[in-house]
Design a protein that fits this description.
- With 757 residues, this protein is of the alpha+beta class.
- Among the domains are: 104 residues, no CATH class; 130 residues, Jelly Rolls (Sandwich), CATH 2.60.120.260; 206 residues, no CATH class.
- It is built from 29 helices and 19 strands.
- A hairpin with a 2-residue loop joins β3 and β4.
- α10 runs parallel beside α12 and α23 packs antiparallel against α24.
- The radius of gyration is 31 Å and the shape is flat.
- The model has no long low-confidence stretch (mean pLDDT 89).
Length: 757
Amino acid sequence: MDWGFRNVALFLSVCAALAAADTPTFEKTVAPVLTRTCTPCHNEALASGGVNIAPFTQAASLTGSRDGWDIILRKIRSGEMPPKGVPRPAQMDAVIQYLQDEFARADRNLKPDPGRVTARRLNRSEYSNTIRDLLAVEFRAEQSFPTDDLGNGFDNIGDVLTVSPVLMDRYLAAAARIASRAVGADPLPKPLEAQYANKDKKIRRVDFSTIEASGRIEFDGEYMVRFGLPGERAADARPVTLAFWMDGKLLHSMPVETKPSKLVYFDPYSEEQMRLFLPEGDHVFRAAFLDDDFVKGLNAKDSYDRKKNKYLDSIAFIGPYAPKTPSPSQTKIFICDPNSGAVCVETIVSNLAHHAWRRPVTKAETASLLKFVALAKSDGQSTEQGIQLALQAMLVSPHFLFRIEHDAKPLDAASVHAITDIELASRLSYFLWSSMPDDELLGLAESGKLHAPATLDAQVKRLLADPRSSALADNFAGQWLELRNLDVVKPDPQKFPEWSPELRDAMKQETRLFFDSMLRENRPLSEFLDAPFTFLNERLANHYGIEGVKGPQFRRVEIDTPQRGGILSHASVLTVSSYPTRTSVVIRGQYILNNILGSPAPPPPPDVPLLDEAAVGATASLRQQMEKHRADAMCASCHNKMDPLGFGLENYDGIGKWRTMDGKFPVDSSGVLPNGSSFSTPAEMRAVLKTQLPQFSRRMEEKMLTYSLGRGLGAYDRRTVDEIDRKLAANGYGFQSLIYEIVRSLPFQSRRGEQQP
């Protein structure tokens, strides 16, 4: 028996020794691969790409240089390293697995840290949307306030949203004007007429049935909108429907007779009019005959022949007139009759402050605001004008202008706590709507029920289904994809004569509607890279060479050509990543690396020679010129990453139109990525990028978490991003899953005190 026990003990000890020998360690698994494969190029003397790998051959670097290791791991996991021409070691998968396991173990042992969000001023979009939802007043802060500073790629980052003296002056002026418009107690001026006519070149003919005019409404009020309709159609012509839009929103439609009058006119002409409430501000007005089949059989000359067609030629506005019924803003404000007594006035003021400040208000705060009502009345003004003055005071209060969250121990960085339900309500609404919480969300918060997981999920679902969630397309996508730059780019009219404001607006609308559809339909993130559909109107469809799309209205279109698919084939993206005179392989490549793959190349050195612009497309293709940069070893380290991606988009010109020739030279869209993946066409490149879905997904997670929190991410956020990453992959990378996981995360629902220097 003794020998039996001894044999078993010996056997177990041998097994343990063998297991220990097979257990991966840094020295056995990682260091040899780095030494053999990486250090020949990345050493202290050579440091290709500015990287010296020698310090990372020590196990201590796993904790001391974690940020550097994250970059290394990302590059070897994507296949970018080792570069083409250097054999990939058979042990590389073991290296990746070891590093992932070590970092996951280290992150699990870290104390959770939700970070800290600075008190945030409302940015211009948030201010406008909050005024809209609070008072039903359309106010365009971008036309009145200075541009918001950017931080971490977004304009809602608390650390950079400062308040200058100029901005404070604008806040005071805006509050006075908004309060006056909302309450409507100030007298309106005498009605006047403003006309926009073809003869004065104040209208734009979008097509034979549609005209547009840009104009300003000086006062909220009702206006007679009068349309001039020259001409007549054949006696058997059917009536048409006249529709009128403001800023893309249909306001009214009515039937219009087009056949000849029984009276004899030498110059046929008629007018139609509608009375509408129009808000103050600069607007784009559009009038059109809907489903106008008659003009389809006319040529351009006959379309404006008064004996052969009736068409739109002018729009006139006569007003303002006092509304016959309370305006939407008055309905929101006057929840009782303010002239019925002090109790009603207090109720109105308290209710306004409650919503404007997005939290319950105290009796003392209400009493302080009521002093403004008394002040106005002592000056001979009406009760309504007193409420207007109190509202003005609310709108310049820090409680309105800032989103302030409180810490029990604000100077203790170790003091982590859940934010209040009321603070959570504002985080959620400003994340998904860029606006204030509505009554349902605020009510749940004030009752202490919002933090319950099922309740919070239900509110996320409700807010996403609301039209206000299109703010994510405007503000998140507009900055992530750099679409806002479309407002400032100026393509050379000699190179791109088809460029126009209408084309620019159509480009923006395509990507906005596409993003909104991806979100509302919870489509997989992979479709951002190669979706089989998009949204087009006739103008943009013609630009793309896609047939069968008629009229100015956008509609969903299934893609049946390899020329288009996903955001990288959208003209908006292709235009903002080009120069005014030509495409840019570098800008487009860097655009993909930064916004899609999250692996931007470093900025170029200061002495990079410029391209010979005159030679591009004339004596050499852009590709041939760019290859000169890649021939330089110092340039190649970055251009080998950027250029293939940029070349993959060379079939699109500087405003996103498909082409097969670059001047006199055939376009060559082929490329090979650092990981060895090759492609010959834009469609093949999109397929290659889809294989990088985990990398793209992580970039989206980092970008949207930054946007949702209003702060940059730190090393302590790595654990949160990893958790979101795992759960998103498990749910098939559905877009809405990303939203839910962010809202459920520790940093979204918690905060800590400030780190002391």
